TrEMBL record:
Keywords: Methyltransferase, Transferase
Ranges of residues in domain tRNA/rRNA methyltransferase SpoU type: 117-256
SUPFAM superfamilies cross-referenced by the UniProt entry: alpha/beta knot
CDD domains, per database record: SpoU-like_rRNA-MTase
Protein name (database record): tRNA/rRNA methyltransferase SpoU type domain-containing protein
MF annotations from Gene Ontology: RNA binding; RNA methyltransferase activity
Pfam families documented for this protein: SpoU_methylase (PF00588)
Domain of life according to the entry: Eukaryota
One biological process term in Gene Ontology: methylation
InterPro entries per UniProt: Alpha/beta_knot_MTases, rRNA_Methyltransferase, SpoU_MeTrfase, tRNA_m1G_MTases_N
Organism: Effrenium voratum
UniProt keyword annotation of Methyltransferase present: yes
Amino acid sequence: MGAYDIASIRNPAIKELFRLRVGGRRARAARGVCLVHGKQLVQSIGEFFKFREVYTHEAQGVYNADRVVRVQKTVLQHVLFGPKEEPAKRVDDDAFVIGKIDHPQPVEEFDSPPKWLLAIDKIKHPENMGLLLSTAVALKFDGVVFNAECVDPFSYKVLDASQAVAWTLPYRYATSQQLLELSRRHGLLLCAGSTKGRPLQDLPTSTGHRGFCLVVGSEAEGVQKELLQHCEQVSLPMSELVESLNAGVAGGILMHSLTMQLGGFASKHVAVACFAAAVQQWLLDLCLRKSTHLAAGVSTPSLF
């Protein structure tokens, strides 16, 4: 098979990869790069964007990268899991492909006046963040606004959950006040999900706004009060058998419903198909992870 380019976890490049994986948002932003892992995901992103480096244990691997580095599988295991050895035994070989790519830069202003915006307020769970971003892309939202207390949308867990759709979605960070100003400047109706809000179907189809900005709040507390008081609060009709909805699912339903109610979507069938595909993918991922979550005692965060 020939010699590996890297065969030790003490290699400086491997130490850098490990720091990028375990480090926070600031560490990744300071270096201007983030990590993507998994052969399929690296290849999918590589169809449109070039990686700086791709690290793989494969004898032959073709990737869109400035440099492809062959690394022993145990070394890549260390990058992904640290000193633990057990995860590697139940992870497919394709997982041991790691790409280092330029960090997408935030925009100061969206290229064209946005009509549909998603604002994410203090979402902490990577799976929820991933589902929200995937749904926003599927429904062709114009952009997303994060506040500084959200989980890093470019952490490897979120990129895995969202299949790295963030590369195709303009984004920026904003405080509550900046979000209010942004919505007013573009004539957007600020909306938020709330159990105390009016039923979504009672929302007028014409509000005098150019579009809307949906705020999805944190799993534990919802939308922060200083922002919520400026929002049109809407609620979802739910069966008495259901106590609450996962924040990512609730946000996705609201995104779809608002595009139908306020967005003037040219074809409702297209919108339904897009949303159904996003939810189908999420449910598939959820089923695959269900046994792991139950074993770990992970609770399901909720919004409603």
